[in-house]
Design a protein that fits this description.
The protein is mainly alpha-helical. Helices cover 74% and strands 8% of the residues. Helix 1 (9-72) packs antiparallel against helix 3 (122-205).
């Protein structure tokens, strides 16, 4: 059973202030949710676009790799010349209080080869270029997908808080204000009637 707020003028003033703040809070939560949803929809569109480009780049890369395998033989030994990627840096930006990752990967210089030219050919070069493109785009896709995940969680939490304000807290304040106002008005009517009776008795005595 909910505890009813004591019907005093002080509590009425405080409840009205809390009610006003709750309404402002709901409006802010609603705006935050809409901004986060808009940001997430933009990122979803970018993710779909990049995924399509990655699929196309992979297809071209494997075609060149197959041609390299045919002309050079199996390229397993050449794959060992590819260095471990260490050019990643991670930063963050804030979107309505949500930390969004920014993954940076220094673009590889296309003339930077990790294998000799004597034992390779242009098909392997093209495959390397295409797989480098895939790596760059995959890095961007990972950044976007992680951002979407974080935004989705933030939207869920914001929606939950907005619903609590709208469906629980604000109606409770409205109910308290109505109850306190009703009790105080009734007390004022009783006091007015009592004073009227006292005044009438005083006039009769005179």
């Amino acid at each position: 059973m909910a505890i009813q707020t004591a019907p005093t003028k002080g509590n009425l003033i405080n409840t009205k202030k809390s009610f006003s703040l709750a309404k402002i809070g709901f409006e802010l939560m609603d705006k935050k949710r809409n901004i986060l949803i808009r940001e997430m929809m933009i990122l979803l569109e970018k993710a779909n676009l990049i995924q399509g480009k990655i699929d196309d780049a992979y297809m071209e890369a494997y075609i060149f790799l197959q041609m390299a395998n045919i002309t050079l033989g199996y390229c397993e030994e050449l794959s060992y010349t590819v260095p471990v990627e260490k050019r990643f840096t991670l930063d963050y930006k804030s979107v309505m209080g949500v930390e969004i990752p920014i993954v940076n990967l220094t673009e590889e210089y296309q003339g930077e080869l990790h294998y000799g030219l004597y034992s390779t050919n242009s098909q392997l070069d093209e495959a390397r270029i295409k797989f480098t493109e895939v790596k760059m785009m995959t890095t961007k896709l990972a950044e976007i997908e992680n951002s979407i995940y974080r935004l989705a969680n933030a939207i869920k939490k914001t929606q939950k808080r907005a619903n609590a304000l709208k469906n629980v807290i604000i109606p409770k304040f409205e109910s308290d204000i109505k109850f306190i106002t009703s009790v105080l008005e009734e007390k004022e009517r009783e006091e007015f009637s009592r004073l009227k009776v006292i005044k009438g008795r005083g006039q009769k005595k005179c």
